[in-house]
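Reviewer comment 2.1 asked that we show a complete input and output for one of the modelled complexes. We chose the KG4 case, as it is the one discussed in the main text.
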Amino acid sequence: MNKDNIILGIESSCDDTSAAILINGLICSNVIANQSIHEAYGGVVPELASRAHQENIVPVIDQALKQAQITIKDINAVAFTRGPGLLGSLLVGTSFAKSLALALEIPLLDVHHMKAHIHAHFIKTKETINKSVPNFPFLCLTVSGGHTQIVLVESPLKMEIIGETLDDAVGEAFDKAAKVIGLNYPGGPLIDRLAQNGNQNAFQFTFPKVGELNYSFSGLKTQFLNFINKEKSKDKEFLKNRINDVCASYQKHLINYLLLNFEKAMIKYSIKDIAIAGGVSANSELRKSLNQLGDKYLCNVHIPDFEYCTDNAAMIAMSGQFLLENKTYADQGISPLSRMNMD
Ligand code: KG4
Ligand code: ZN
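Response of the prediction step:
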């Protein structure tokens, strides 16, 4: 086996501990330990997340190595998520990566979590070696639990945010609405599932008005809460009878709002390759609607594989590969950042 290019990727920015092995450009393993402990609290509890990362990180890395049929000594670069994310969580992955790089005397690569979500489009495995990847420049709608951004991707490492949320992220708009209607955390996938059997046109919501390509989701969250309270005061059985219609209408509204500005960006920048990334890109309505938008403008549409939408270390290893190619290394003095610019 050619040992010249074996990258270990480590992700620990929020509540998933993940490790992946990239060998000569191909992902050979991608192990993720989810933390179900947060479900009971209706959101991620930072202190519990950090503790769970400490428990999970060694077994997760062990499993990733085993699945890739290599040992830790075969690794010749280590990539880790530096930020943005929860500081206590980031610290676990960062400390592990730094110690490993020091012990093995290999390059240390610090990865920007949101750039990595975009790099998920370049992940290939033995089975998907011939898949097409986005052409540069492309426009990416990056949607997760902490971010909502329209990104102009000029090259693997050159990205510019041209629109973003001024308050909450769209993932939060899903998760907080889910909590209001009694669903567990994370509520996004549950709303998506319930919406499959609902009427998208049953209820109407309004669009917040902010700058041209920017978003605001905090008002929508309040609008949803007021709507549910009002309906429940009229009919105690409202949620029991109409939960599918509520989910379908609210989900459709969020996706329409996301794509309203994204379409404006496509026109403004005349870009023919469009993509989505981040946890919310797993949403079935968003995936369907992006394809329709692509058809309308004859664009190449790029939708990440399901397993690489939510947090994973394969995308961190992929970012690591781009950093390695660019000879952009981190040193042992590096520390994690809860907030981090894209440039
Ligand atoms: O990227 P990610 O795993 O973590 C962050 O970096 O934040 O995104 C998590 C977010 C959560 O808000 C979750 O509810 C949302 O992605 N999500 C979805 C779906 N799957 C995950 N939202 C809507 N529909 C889905 N199918
Ligand atoms: Zn993420």
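The pocket of KG4 (ligand 1) is lined by residues 14, 144-146, 171, 174-175, 186-189, 192, 278-280, 282-283, 310-311 (CB under 6 Å). We note this here for comparison with the apo prediction described in Section 3.2.
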